[in-house]
UniProtKB/TrEMBL annotation:
It comes from the Bacteria. It is an enzyme of class 1 (oxidoreductase). SUPFAM superfamilies: 6-phosphogluconate dehydrogenase C-terminal domain-like, NAD(P)-binding Rossmann-fold domains. Residues 165-292 form the 3-hydroxyisobutyrate dehydrogenase-like NAD-binding domain. Belongs to the HIBADH-related family. GO terms for molecular function: 3-hydroxyisobutyrate dehydrogenase activity; NAD binding; NADP binding. The lineage of its organism: Bacteria, Pseudomonadati, Pseudomonadota, Gammaproteobacteria, Alteromonadales. Its EC number is 1.1.1.31. This is 3-hydroxyisobutyrate dehydrogenase. Pfam families: NAD_binding_11 (PF14833), NAD_binding_2 (PF03446). InterPro entries: 3-OH-isobutyrate_DH-rel_CS, 6-PGluconate_DH-like_C_sf, 6PGD_dom2, 6PGDH_NADP-bd, HIBADH, HIBADH-like_NADP-bd, HIBADH-related, NAD(P)-bd_dom_sf.
């Protein structure tokens, strides 16, 4: 069994760390939220007093933080973990961040002899809890193989996308598509409702027609079509609007670098920015349905 340090025990990191504990690993945890730490201690993880203590004799350090600035600060900032990590440790950053930040951190750690992969995930909080996440890994083949020792304890599909940063590029392509599907599904459902259709029946019809997609099937944005999804629970996240807006900003940044045309992604970014301006940043991203349904 491995010794694992885990930083960032939020909506995703919390259940991921629980699965590592359940798999029998020795897990030391750190978060800024005492409540998040307490939940992990209850299931058998060990709390540390200071973030650098997660590094002590660790085989792996896993992080699941909001954005690039947090990841850079934790690893390469003032008194960053770069000063505390051992050369035998593999750092696995699962946060969704810009590829440049991942490459910056990976290069800095690499120059200090410390191994690093970016390994953003897809599958949402349900996938994190069930241990069925998709991991999209960027890094050397040797580090990918090493990461594969523990990633199956948290996920089902594990892909090697390329070098450091490639995991992040694949992840933001996916999230840009996800946001477009969420907006489109909301738009179609509300048009049906406006014409008197039952959203459950309409969802069933589209699920068996060519409009079938993940948001319609597993994360339906219309309240009470599915149980146990954020839309049927007051749009409690889940995956926050603020995080989707961040990912769409990263997607536009990436598109600009290569002159890629992403008109639908730009539109989705604007819709999510509008929600942020309406004070809905902390709601689940499926709350975009309300842009269409609230008259
Ligand atoms: P979250 O806000 O619920 O969790 C982030 C956690 O990091 C919080 O508990 C916070 O206290 C902690 N944190 C922040 N700064 C810290 C620091 N300096 N030291 C220690 N802990 C710190 O966010 P989340 O939904 O768990 O998302 C985390 C990452 O995963 C994001 O990059 C997000 O884009 C990505 N992601 C989220 C989902 C989802 O469905 N929620 C799905 C895939 C990927």
């Amino acid at each position: 069994m491995a010794k694992i340090g885990f930083i960032g025990l939020g909506n995703m990191g919390g259940p991921m760390a629980i699965n590592l504990v359940k798999a029998g690993h020795e897990v030391r945890v750190f978060d800024l939220s005492p409540d998040a730490i307490a939940t992990l201690v209850e299931v058998g993880a060990t709390a540390v007093n200071a973030v650098e203590e997660v590094c002590d004799n660790a085989d792996f350090v896993v992080s699941m933080l909001p954005a690039g600035k947090h990841v850079k600060a934790i690893y390469t900032g003032e008194n960053g973990l770069i000063n505390h990590l051992d050369k035998n440790t593999l750092v696995i950053d699962c946060s969704t961040i810009d590829a440049e930040s991942a490459q910056y951190v990976g290069k800095a750690l690499g120059e200090a002899g410390i191994k690093f992969v970016d390994a953003p995930v897809s599958g949402g909080v349900a996938g994190a809890a069930a241990g069925t996440l998709t991991f999209i890994v960027g890094g050397s083949t040797a580090c990918f193989e090493l990461a594969n020792i523990i990633l199956p304890n948290m996920g089902k599909n594990i892909y090697h996308a390329g070098d450091i940063g490639a995991g992040q590029v694949a992840k933001i392509c996916n999230n840009m598509l996800l946001s477009i599907l969420m907006a489109g599904t909301s738009e179609a459902l509300q048009m049906g409702i406006d014409h008197g259709l039952d959203p459950k029946v309409l969802s069933e019809i589209m699920l068996n027609s060519s409009g079938r997609n993940w948001t319609l099937e597993l994360y339906n944005p219309c309240p009470d079509v599915l149980e146990n999804v954020p839309s049927s629970n007051g749009y409690k996240p889940g995956f926050m609007v603020d995080l989707m807006a961040k990912d769409l900003g990263l997607a536009q940044q990436a598109a600009q670098q290569t002159n890629s045309a992403t008109p639908m992604g730009a539109l989705a970014k604007n819709l999510y920015n509008l929600m942020q301006n309406q004070g809905k940043g902390a709601e689940d991203f499926s709350a975009i349905f309300k842009l269409y349904s609230e008259k």
